[in-house]
Amino acid sequence: MAAMSGSLPLVPAAARRSGDGQGGGPSVVALGGGHGLSSSLSALRLLTQELTAIVTVADDGGSSGRLRRELGVLPPGDLRMALAALCDDTDWGRTWRDVMQHRFSSRDGVEGSLDGHAMGNLLIVTLWELLGDPVAGLQWAGALLGARGRVLPMASVPLTIEGDILSETAGSLRVTTVSGQAKLAVAADTGNVSNVRLVPADAPACQDALEAVELADWVVLGPGSWYTSVLPHLLLPELRDALCRTSARRCLTMNLSNDTRETLGMSAIDHLNVISRYAPELTVDVVLVDPSVVADRGEFERAVAGMGGRAVFGRVGVSTGKPVHDPLRLATSYNDMFAEI
């Protein structure tokens, strides 16, 4: 992706002024994608100014998928959502967040070329084309929002996630291979997800992301769609190795519901087993979990101990009972966790 003549400088002035590394709070790297990552970022931004989001780049549906196919770029949607979660809590930041999140909708039933596109996706891709550098483009977008932290892609190239769906028909087991994040999420309704992998398997990780993991005080993985937002970070060899080698403390944040489209019939311990299966060398310091999703506390604590860590139980969901994390409750749990260890 070559930069156009007369393009912007690679680092916006606002980022140069604020990028001295002297912010308050621990250095935290949060990994994930979609709404799950937005939840953790909305909480963590209340605790530290040294925050980096590392985002999956396997989305192939909706606006992101169209831009990926038509322009050969990284899918911008999850990156946009992470930026929106980090926007400055001022009229300026909130206004630009709303601009980034605005989605075009054609009128009178006419499906136009902009129908379904998010404005932020188009803006991010524009910056990428001007700068020829995905990281720099995201830095400029973050400066526009006054983002409290930075957003990085997990890989330097678009990724495709593949998985096998195990289903039983007339007493016989059937295995169907599904390619693509959007198709995999839908196919999971018909059976259990198994043998998930990335294509290309040896894709290069984003070097800035690897450096952020290496220098972090804490690494937070999850919550999010377990197979398509959380697990991909452990399927990318360079990133998995960095997560295993880092001297940072590692926290795994569990979802508020076990029965999602991707994990129907799985228990909280089954979720842990998925992590251990694909990254057996990964240890954790803390697993943060809402007690509502754990059937047997003792059994869950033993499973976490087998991963090298301890379970921290906290009511982190919204008061309505919906499986949505409350930013203030989640921030309180993270703050206590950071202080105790």
- Portion in beta strands: 15-25%
Summed up, the domain count is: 3
**What is the count of DSSP helices, taking H or I runs of 4+ residues?**
15
CATH homology superfamily of the largest domain: CofD-like domains
- Major beta sheet summary: 7 strands, parallel
Write the layout of secondary structure elements.
Blueprint: H1 13-18, E1 28-32, H2 34-44, E2 51-55, H3 62-71, H4 77-85, H5 91-101, H6 119-131, H7 134-145, E3 150-153, E4 160-169, E5 172-179, H8 181-187, E6 192-199, H9 207-215, E7 218-221, H10 226-230, H11 232-235, H12 237-245, E8 249-253, H13 268-278, E9 286-289, H14 297-305, E10 310-313, H15 327-340
Parallel strand pairs: 1-2, 1-7, 2-3, 7-8, 8-9, 9-10
Antiparallel strand pairs: 4-5, 4-6
List keywords for this structure.
341 residues; alpha/beta; Rossmann fold; 3 domains; 7-stranded parallel β-sheet; 3-stranded antiparallel β-sheet; 41% helix; 17% strand; disordered N terminus; Gluconeogen_factor; Putative gluconeogenesis factor
